Amino acid sequence: MNNRSIIFSPVTRLSGLLSVEITIENSRVIEANASGAMFRGFEWMMQGRKVTDAVYLTQRICGICSQAHGAVSSYLLDELYDSELTKNAQLLRNIMFGAEFLQNHIRHFYFFSLPDFVQMPKRPPFESSSLSDFRLNLHDNERLAGHYHEAVKAAQESHQMLALFGGKAPHQHSFVYGGVAVAPTADKINQAKALIKDINEFVKGFLVPDTELIARVYGDYFRIGITPRRLLSFGLFRFGTKNEKVLLRSGVLTDNQISTLDPGLIQEDIANSWFNMENNREIRPNPYKPGAYTWIKAVKYAGQYFQVGPLARMIINGRYNGGTSTMDRIFTRSIETLLVAELIREWLDQLIPGPPPINQKEKPVKNQATATTDAMRGALLHRTNIEDENILEYKIITPTMWNFSPKDRNGNRGPVESALVDTDIYSANLLDTILGRIIRSFDPCISCATHIINCTEDMDGYTLF
Amino acid sequence: MRKEEYVNLCRKQRSNNSYSLSGTILPLVKDYLQHNRTNKLPVIWVETNDSGDNNISFMNTTYPYLDRVFSDMIDLLYSNTFMAAQGKEALYILEQAATTYKDKFVLVVEGAIPVKDNGLYNIIARTENKNITALEAVKWLSMSAKYVVAIGTCASFGGPSAARPNITGSVGVRDVVNREVINVSGCPVNPDWFVGTLAHLLMFGRPELDDLNRPKLFYEFIVHRHCQRRSCFDRGDFAERLGDIECMFSLGCVGPRTPADCPYRLWVNHVSWPVKANTPCIGCTNEDFPDGSEPFFTTLPEKRKNNQGPA
Q1: Does B294 contact A53 at a Cβ distance shorter than 8 Å?
Q2: What is the pLDDT of residues B69-95, one digit of tens each?
Q3: Which of B48, B71, B77, B81 to mutate to test the interface with A (most CBs of A within 10 A)?
Q4: Is the pTM of this model over 0.90?
Q5: Which of B:85-144 have CB within 8 Å of A?
Q6: For chain A, what is the domain count?
Q7: Domain that holds residue A339
Q8: Which of A214, A371, A425, B140 has its CA 20 to 30 A from that of A278?
Q9: Pick from A69, A39, A41: nearest CA to A54
C-alpha cells in the first residue's frame, strides 16, 4: 500500500471524545494527528466567580478524575488563605485522593484496556467483529473476561470509600481548603478499612497477575508505541502543615538525568489548535481555523514535549526502570495501583479518630497562587489571580494536554503522536486494534484536556508565568 | 408487581428496609422479562459536552452492579465509554442499532449540546467526508427513539457546560429536539435515579414527570423536607463553619429549593450525602445549576439571582 490517510474515529473506551487521523506509507505510520473533539471553556467560566467556589466547580471538569481537580484547587486555596493543615487532615485527604486513583486505574484496566487484549462475551456493549489479535488461550481468556465482574465491584468500593468521607462521588464535598469537613470517626475508619481490605485483595489477586499475564503474552507491545524518554511529574500526595512535603517526588527526566522542576519553564502553543490570538493577549476559540485539528493546546517544558502519568511517576521515583512503550505504561499503572492500595491501608492505621480536621481562615492573604499535583494521568496545575476573593483569571493545565499535545509550529510531535508514528501495521486488518492499544495506554481524558488559557506570546509559544 | 407498588418502592418513604432501590429492581425486571417474553431495554447512549461524571456514577450502581445491568436489564448498543467496538465499526453499530431498534430504543444523552458555530464544539465522530456533531447526532437519533432520556444536569438543562458566559452556546437536549425529554438531572446523577428510570421505562413505560420533566419517583420532594438537620433549621441552630453538625442553611445550602431524595437515598451504595459530610447541598439537580447556586457558601437569599456576564 502507498501513502494513504485514515481516520480512526470515534476512539471509544476513554473519557471524552477523541478522533485520530493517521497517514500510512508501506504499512508504516508516518504521521498522526490526535484530535480532542470537545470544548467547554472552563477557564472562562471561572472568571468573576468567588474563588472559594473553585473546589466544587472545577471538579465538574472531569468525571473520572474529579478529586484531582478538587485536591489541587484546595491546595491553591490553602495558599491563598494561608491554611494550616493537621496531620489527620492530610491523612484523610490522601486517603480520599488515593481512593480516586484506585477507582480510575481499576476502571481503566478492566473497562477500557481489557477489551483490547481479551475477547469479551458476544453481547452488548462488547460486540465487535473488527477487534482482533486475541492471543490468550481459551481458559485464560474466559477467566480474565470474567474478572470484569470483580473489577466492577472493586472500583465501586473505591468510590464508596471516597464517598464515605466525601459525601458523594464523583464530585465529593468535604475535601476543601483548610482540611476536611468530615470527622474521621472510628466507625468510618473501620468501614474504610474493610473496603480497602477487599480492594487490596482484588489488586493483588486479580489486577497485578492479570497485568503480568497480558504483558507476557503481548510482550511485543514493550517495543510498540515508544515515546522519547522525556518524563515529567509534579509529585503526588502532599503532607505538612503547608502542603510543603510530597510523598512521590516531582521532577523532570531528560537524558536519564532527573532535575528539579521549574514551573516558569512551562509554555503553551496554539499553532495547530482551534484558537486564535486576539489583541496579542486574549485567546478565542475558532473552530474554523485553517490547518488546526484539535481543541487541545500544546504544552511544553523548556521548549520540549514531555510524557506524564504513572510511567513518569514510577520512573522518576525509582520504582520502575523499564522503557516508554505501550506495555510499560499499562504495567506501571498497575504497579502504582498496588502501591496506592498499600499506602491507603497504612494511612488508615495512622488516622486518629476525632473531630473534623478543618480550619478555614476568613480572608485570603495573597492575590495570586499556583498549585500543582499529579493526577491519575499525570501533571495537573491550577493557577489563579483574585481580587476581593473574586476570580480575575483561572488557569488549568491538565495531564492529557501534555500527552495529547498537537504539533507545534515547527512540526514537532507530542508524546501520543510520537508513539503512533513509526508503528508497523503488519496486517491491514489490525490497524484499529494496534492504534487503540497504543492510544489507550495513555489513559486519555479529553473532557479534561480541552480548555483555554490567556497568556503572553513569545518566540516559541505562550509563556504562562 | 403493579406500577403503584413500584412507585412506592422507589419513593421508599415509609420503608423499614434498607434505602437501596436498585437491589430490588433486578429480580423484578427478570420476572417481567420472563413473564412477558420480551427483550431487554435497547439503549443508545451518546456522550456530548459534559465531564463524563454521569457514566462514572452509573458505574457505581449497586444491586444490580454494572455488569448485571448489562447482562440482565439493558442492551447497551452504543456507548463511547463502554463499547468494545471502535472507529468505523462503532459508527456502523450505531447506524444499525438506530435502524433495527427504530421506535424501540431509548436514547440516553449525556451532556449539553453546543449549538454555536453549527455545533462544532462537540464532534462525536469523524468520517472521511464529515464531522458528526453532537447537535446532528442527537437530533437524528431522537427522531427514531422511543424515549429520550437526558442523564445529568448538563443534558437536562445545560448545567456546568452552559454556565456563564457559555461561549459554546450549550443548551439542554430539550432545546434541540422536537419531542419530550425525560430529565434525570444531577451533577452527577445518582445511579438509582437513572437505573430506576430505565427500569420504569422497561416495565411500565413513561414515568410521571414534574414540571421540568423529571421523574417524580425521585424528584417529587425537596431535599429540605427529608433532611436529617431539618430540626436544627426549625430551631434556628445554624452551622458557623464547614464541619459543624448544625443546619447548613447559613453556609449556603440550597436544599430548601432542590428536588432530590439525597437525604434518604444517599450516594455510592447509600453511605453518605453532602450534608452528612458537614457541607451544604449545592442544588445540583436544579435548572439553574451552577450559576443559581453560587456563591456556593453564601446564604440562599443572598446568592446572585441572575447570571452575570464575565468579569
Answers
A1: yes
A2: 999 999 999 999 999 999 999 999 999
A3: B81
A4: yes
A5: 85-91, 93, 114, 117, 120-128
A6: 1
A7: 4-463
A8: A371
A9: A69
Contact A63 B126 (CB under 8 A): no
Burial B207-239 (b: 16+ CB within 10 A, else e): bebeebbbbebbbbbbbbebbebbebbeeeebb
Which residues from chain B sit within 8 angstroms of residue A179, using beta carbons? 243
Q: Do A285 and B274 touch (CB under 8 A)?
A: no
Peptide linkage before B280 cis (omega within 30 of 0)? no
ipTM exceeds 0.90, yes or no: yes
Cell of B1: 408487581
Q: What is the CATH number of the domain that holds A73?
A: 1.10.645.10
- Using one digit for the tens of pLDDT, what is the confidence trace for A311-358? 999 999 999 999 999 999 999 999 999 999 999 999 999 999 999 999
Which chain A positions have a beta carbon within 8 Å of B49's beta carbon?
Answer: 38-40
For chain B, which domains are there? 3-219 (3.40.50.700), 221-311 (4.10.480.10)
Residue with cell 473496603: A195
Count A/B contacts: CB-CB distance under 8 Å: 289
